[in-house]
Each structure stands twice: as structure tokens, then as C-alpha cells.
Amino acid sequence: MMTFQELLAFYEDHLNHHVLPFWLKHGVDRELGGVFTLLRDDGKLESDDKMMWSQGRMLWVYSVLYQEMGHDPQWLEFAQQTARFLLAHGRDENGAWLFRVTRQGAPVLGPESIYVDAFALYGLAEYVRATGDAEALEAARAIFRRTSPLLNDHSKLPTRPHPIPAGVQSHGPSMMFAYVYHELGVLTGDREILARALELAEIVMTQHLKPERRVLLEFVRPGGEEVEGDLGQTFVPGHAIESMWFMERIYAYHRRPQRVRQALEAIRWHLERGWDAEFGGIYLAGNAAGGKPVWHAPEAKVWWPATEALYALLRAYELSGEAWCREWYWRVHDYTFSHYPDREHGDWHQYLDREGRPTVNLVPGLGVKDPFHLPRALIYGIRTLRKLATR
Length: 391
Known about the structure:
By secondary structure, the chain is mainly alpha-helical. The protein folds into three domains: 1-31 and 318-391, no CATH class; 37-152; 165-299, Glycosyltransferase (Alpha/alpha barrel), CATH 1.50.10. It has helices at residues 4-26, 52-68, 73-89, 114-131, 134-147, 171-188, 191-208, 229-233, 237-253, 257-274, 303-320, 323-339, 373-388; strands at residues 50-51, 100-101, 107-109, 169-170, 209-210, 215-216, 219-220, 234-235, 286-287, 301-302, 351-352. The longest helix has 23 residues, at 4-26.
């Protein structure tokens, strides 16, 4: 077990020498701007089309790297190129964000997922924080104005690659927009945006989170009533863990310590429910009643729940100092860094089967190699470890 100082050095080395070099070599479109993510693990392009989902995410990464890593001009340059590509090619005539475009920016798939809007807002807001860019700020505000009323009725929300079943409310949109609205609200000081973020956070905490059962249900009826059958018992541990560190940030800002404590406890619940005691690792999905989860590849060990757990546990320990955070952190750490890193090509194998063997992309209708969850977890982990290492 490493000290926090040693773990900090490990994270910095992993980010700078194992993860970022892969994306600098294979992902950056230095000619036209933006990022390639229709990639194989060895870096070979399956297509030079660009997923707008990924452009917003990578804009966030570049913008944070610029701010966190000594204002290195290369990160600012890549952020500017990506922001220009997003703003020039990302939206249709109604302001809805496209799903997929050609390398040059011509539409391939239209506005098929509200999550693209969320990631565009997330990236643009962070870019504004790094640069003060007025056009990007107005684009982010426009996303808020367009999407906020849409979130009231999930039956009409496009959410590729995970369509929302008829008659239910999904955790994903409320969780994601609560956080990105909060980030925009903090950036701008806009009380309307902050209030809407808090309203969505309350939907997560009072309708999807079931403290008496120690689980966050992915699907409920509007208002929070449980849905009958396996759909209504489905939980996604990684989603719940990511959501709860989102909630911690929102409720800490509003000085609601009881909600913060509840969010930290819920991180623990989902590690206990989601950990595979036989093979190790975090299941992609589970069923709170013991049935079959209504989710793709529920027994798979996908990379992003591991990244979210790593950061969430470090943050939980920073806030609480409780022993379970450290114990769970090292259990997740040991599995994660012995299974996911691609020692030959850099970055990670993003999809493992239940026994921990690399497998094919498991997300229907998406097909990307993601440049976001891992860098974010390492960047935020470094930020947290710098504080823990000084204690």
C-alpha cells in the first residue's frame, strides 16, 4: 500500500506517460480540430467521423489540463481547436446538438441524444473558465435555455445509446444535467441555473435514491414510485457512484451537510452491491431484487465505473476520513491497475468480461474509445491527493 505522496506520484506518472500520450498520438486532429474516438485499442482509426459526444468531453479535458498543468500552451491550443470545431459544426438549425459528423463537420447523425448537449455544455463551461471566451459562454447558456424544459418529460427525451423505456423516468438525465448546470451556474453566478441544478439533484436524491433499501434505482415512475419487474429493480453501480460525487459537490456548495453525508454513504452501498466477490471488479449493472438487470452486458467489468470509484473514494476519504473509504479505495485500485491498463499501446482496455479479460466494445450504437472518464478521474484524483499528501 502506497503513501498518499507515492500515490500522487503514481497518478501523475500514469496520466502523463501512459494515458495522455495515446491521445496525443492517435486522437488529435491537428489539421481540422477536434478529436478522433472511433479508434481501436492499438490506435487504428475505424472511421475519421467525429462523435460530438466526444468533442465536448475532450474539450473539458483539454481545458482542465491547461488550468491544472502549469498553463501549458499545447493544451490551450487543442482546447481552442476543439471549441472552434464544436461551435462551427455541432448544432442543427434549432440549436440541438448532433450525434455524429464527418471529419470536416458535415452531419451524419442528427440530435439523437440529449447527453451530447450535456457534454457540450460541460466542455464549453470549462473552456470559458480557462479562457473567458464569450462565444462559448453564450453557447453554453443557450444549451441551458433549450434543454431545461425538455427534462420535465423523459418520454420525449432522445437518449442514444440508452433509450428510456416508455412511462418511466431515467436517472441519467437528471444526474448529468444537475451537475453540468451546477458547473455553469457556479461559473456565471446565475441563480436561475443554480436553482435548476439543485431541483434536478433533489430528483436524484428523493426519487431515485432509496435509502431504506440502500440503492439508487436507474428507472422509476415520474415522482419516484418504483416500477414493477426487473426494469424497476435495475441499478448501475458506476452511475450511482458518479452521481453521488456529483451530488456531493452540489450540496456542499449549498451547505447541505446531511445530503453530503447521504451521498458519501450511497457510494459505499453501491460498492458493496456492485463488487464481484468471485472475480473482483465492479459489475456494470445489478438487480436489487436478485433478478436480471435490464441493461447491456451487466456482468462485464467496464472501465468507467472503476475510474468513478477511484476518484469518489479519494474524495470521500478527504471529506470524512473514514476507514471504509481507504479500504475500498485499495480494493478498487488493486483490481483496476492490474487489469485495465494497456501496457503495449497506452491508455486502457475499456471493456473486460466478468473474469477480467479484454473484450470488444459492449455499448450498442456508440462504438467509441472514450477519452474522458479516465483522464478526469486522474486529474481530480491528483487534485485530491495533493491535499491528502500534505496532511
